[in-house]
Every structure is written in C-alpha cells, then in structure tokens.
Amino acid sequence: MTTTRTATAREPAEPALGPSRYPLPLPGWDGLGVTARVEPGAMTTLRRLRRGDVAELALAILDREVVPAFVGADRWRTDERGRLDARGTFVRVGPACSPGAMEVLGRRWALTEGVDARPGTRIEVAGTLDVTGGDRAAQLSRTWRVRSWRRYAPGRAGVPLATLPSRDDADPAARYVVDLEPV
After folding, report:
1. Total structural domains in the chain?
2. 21: in domain
3. How far is it, in rounded angstroms, from Cα 7 to Cα 61?
4. Alpha helices (H) along the chain
5. Averaged confidence pLDDT in the chain
6. Which of 138, 43, 22, 13 is CA-nearest to residue 86?
7. Contact (CB, 8 A) for 165 and 32
8. Would the pTM count as exceeding 0.85?
C-alpha cells in the first residue's frame, strides 16, 4: 500500500521567504501531493474531472515575490489554498525572453512572470501554484490524479466539491482549488 503525503503550510497565512521558515530539506517527490488554484480559463476543461480521475495538467507558479536564495536546500510547500513557498534553481525552458522555470529536486515548474536571473541561479519564490494552459506550460505538463476539489469564498473555510461548477455558474469572488497527486 502506498502512503500519500501532502506538504501543507499552516502559519503564517501568506507565503514568507527566508531560511528559517522551513529549515528541513524536502525529502523527495515520492507520494508528495500538491494543491493548485484553478484559473477561470481552465475551469471549462477541468469541469469534467472527478475525484480519482487522471489527467495531463500543466501547473505554473504565479510568482509574487522572487529573491535570491543564498543558503538552504530545495524546498516545496503549498497550503490548502494553493499558496506556495519554494526554493530551487532558475532554468530556461525556451527562448531567452521566456519567463523560465524553477527546478526543485529534479522537477521543473513553469514561472508565469519573468525572473531577472541567470540560469543556474538559486531562487526563493512566494506566490501561488495554478493550473494553467499555453504552449510553455504544456512543455512542463505531467500526469496527475485528482484527489479533491474545494471552493474558498472570501473569509470562509473551504467547501468540498464533487466537481467544478461551469464557468457561468462559478462564484466570481470565490477561488477554486484542486488537490493533486503525481501518477
């Protein structure tokens, strides 16, 4: 029987950078799940997926803060709302004008905004992990199993969902997230 572990951040509520927040290095990716926000543009495609379904999905880091990482091992944390705190290496996956990607323990995650860094530079990123589309993100897509869906309205706890609502029925003020595990 395989045991699934999910890395989740509890406090502080917003991602924070720095070597003291998560002092222990990430042990590896075996069985480690992630939580990603669903962008409104991806809702139509993902609406057909239910718990246990397997799909090829592209996830990208919507980076809010990027700083050089001078010390510390790779790390990866997502909380129940898809907020991210990670440390890894900046890499290019396309032309020099592309935003690039972040490599954490051998896995590459697309960045949505350009980073002013040379390939091979160690960086820390605080932001969100989003289910996205597009050519660049598709280069880094992987096969994932859907574990659960949730809706977060402002100031409220997460509400479990059987599936995503249609784009027309979705609450525009709410955020939708999906828990995924690698296949």
Report:
1. 1
2. no
3. 16
4. 43-46, 135-139
5. 78
6. 22
7. no
8. no
